[in-house]
Write a structure and sequence with these properties.
Belongs to the CobB/CobQ family. CobQ subfamily. It comes from Shinella zoogloeoides. Catalyzes amidations at positions B, D, E, and G on adenosylcobyrinic A,C-diamide. NH(2) groups are provided by glutamine, and one molecule of ATP is hydrogenolyzed for each amidation. By secondary structure, the protein is an alpha/beta fold. The chain is 30% helix and 28% strand. It has 14 helices and 26 strands. A six-stranded parallel β-sheet has the order 2-9-1-10-11-12, with helices on both faces. Strands 15-13-16-18-26-25 form a six-stranded mixed β-sheet. Strands 19, 20, 21, 22, 23 and 24 form a six-stranded mixed β-sheet that branches. The radius of gyration is 23 Å and the shape is globular.
Length: 487
């Protein structure tokens, strides 16, 4: 019989994703067949699963932790925000449609069947399924039709562990408050709680644990410190960018404008891991740094809207100055589309604006089209003649004179473009910078040494590190019972 556990948070960004990944790796290290599951995710950080559909990047990472192939069933409902009020809806790996927030609330009950079907597929043949909630079960105004938290847990009969983030403060109130406002049916599903992101002497919180127990009756399954290895893992959502600071003092400064609808920004993680690279995420209202040697335009869920925001921030003038100073530019996916002369959207796929002028750094044009490219790919850099491996998730077709000088070959197909002087390049390939050989050649162009480590192996080692840190602090009886060690 498959064991299941669901981690829900007292709020968003409490660290559920990393805890689920850590539990998956602990179970995998003990020889269990374990799989992650998240009924509903909201993120523009998407991945292409092994079976060829879109899932949240976090569930892809968790499948890596579990040492199993990723599947569309691990994240059956993925919401990809396109505006402040609306999202693209991906169901079991394929685009289902679009909806504004209020319309989606009415749609959720119809999606529960897909969620339960996927949960059954993930559970088949597994010893353990570790489920991640979304947001908080305390959002009782959204409880009707819920598929992400208690709506799923009660329907599937999955016990819940509540996660509280002590780093943001108010963790006692958040746990006790969640207990107070949950209806009894939901409250019964919670078996205990975890305190996450603790800094300092854990014994100082003994009184807090006693008080939480007095108000709720819930046991504490562990006080988890700030996990040192977690910083080496790809972040799930762009909310983390609000806390990232540049200024590491590396020999090469790389500037990344933070677009409103930034997507798949973990493409930049391998550069961030390079000791001689100072990766700076530039927010609206801040200029692109004049001393940057390289500017990288990341992916975007809404290229046309983000181009407007790019100009509103004055970054179009900054990047023109950057080019006059002899700088280089790389555009990935939506960032590649922005580098061209024009982006058109005759069918209104992204919104009401049908045409916008690009940055004009590449002599190409993009036309949005309804067919979405979603695939894992093997590729080769035509600039440096080194192997690449990554994935494609994009709408639109890009062509023009500079595309006759492609930047990469994807599964034998030319892709991307390079400017005549070689200082601007674009590609639809996500994962370009994960190639150690590519990074080494790119950084060598700036006169510095890089790529001297295996980035992918480093992520896997970080998952082992997270698992080891968790095993040292989680309640042993609870963990052994979860993993079946006490049977």
């Amino acid at each position: 019989m498959t064991r299941t556990i669901m981690l829900q948070g007292t709020g968003s960004d409490v660290g559920k994703t990393v805890l689920v990944a850590g539990l998956c790796r602990i179970a995998a290290n003990r020889g269990l067949t374990v799989r992650p599951f998240k009924p509903q995710n909201m993120s523009n950080n998407a991945a292409v699963s092994a079976d060829g559909g879109e899932i949240g990047r976090a569930q892809w990472l968790q499948s890596l932790a579990a040492r199993v192939p990723s599947s569309v069933h691990m994240n059956p409902v993925l919401l990809k925000p396109q505006s402040d009020v609306g999202s693209q809806i991906v169901v079991q790996g394929k685009v289902f449609g679009q909806a504004k927030g209020r319309d989606y609330q009415a749609l959720k009950p119809r999606l529960m069947d897909a969620v339960m079907e996927s949960f059954s597929a993930v559970s088949a043949g597994a010893d353990l399924v570790v489920v991640e909630g979304a947001g908080s079960p305390a959002e009782i105004n959204l409880r009707a039709g819920d598929i992400a938290n208690m709506g799923f847990a009660t329907r599937a009969g999955v016990p819940v562990v509540l996660v509280g983030d002590i780093d943001r403060g108010g963790v006692i109130a958040s746990l006790v408050g969640t207990h107070a406002i949950l209806p009894e049916e939901d409250r019964r599903m919670i078996t205990g709680y975890l305190i996450n992101k603790f800094r300092g002497d854990v014994t100082l919180f003994d009184g807090g644990i006693a008080e939480i127990g007095r108000f709720t009756g819930w046991p504490c399954f562990g006080v988890v410190p700030w996990l040192r290895q977690a910083g080496r893992l790809p972040a799930e959502d762009s909310v983390v960018l609000e806390r990232l600071a540049g200024g590491s003092g590396g020999a090469l400064k790389v500037a990344v404008p933070v677009l409103s609808r930034i997507a798949n920004f973990d493409d930049l993680d391998p550069l961030k891991a390079e000791p001689q690279v100072d990766l700076v995420f530039v927010r609206p209202g801040e200029p692109l740094p004049a001393d940057a040697g390289l500017v990288v335009l990341p992916g975007s869920k809404s290229t046309i809207a983000d181009l407007g925001d790019f100009r509103a921030a004055g970054w179009d003038r900054d990047i023109a100055m950057h080019m006059r100073r002899g700088g280089r530019v790389i555009g990935i996916c939506g960032g590649y589309q922005m580098l061209g002369r024009r982006v058109t959207d005759p069918l209104g796929i992204e919104g009401s604006e049908r045409e916008v002028e690009g940055l004009g750094l590449l002599d190409v044009e993009t036309e949005m089209a309804p067919e979405k490219t979603v695939r894992n790919s093997r590729a080769r850099s035509l600039q440096y003649d080194v192997p690449l491996e990554g994935y494609e998730i994009h709408l639109g077709r890009t062509a023009g004179p500079d595309a006759l000088n492609p930047s990469v070959s994807i599964d034998g197909r030319p892709d991307g473009a390079v400017s005549p002087d070689g200082r601007v390049m674009g590609t639809y390939l996500h994962g370009l910078l994960s190639s150690d050989a590519y990074r080494a050649r790119l950084l060598a162009d700036f006169g510095i040494e890089g790529g001297g480590f295996d980035y992918r192996a480093g992520v896997d080692a970080a998952l082992d590190g997270v698992a080891a840190e968790l095993e040292a602090v989680l309640d042993r009886r609870w963990l052994d019972d979860l993993l079946g060690a006490s049977d």
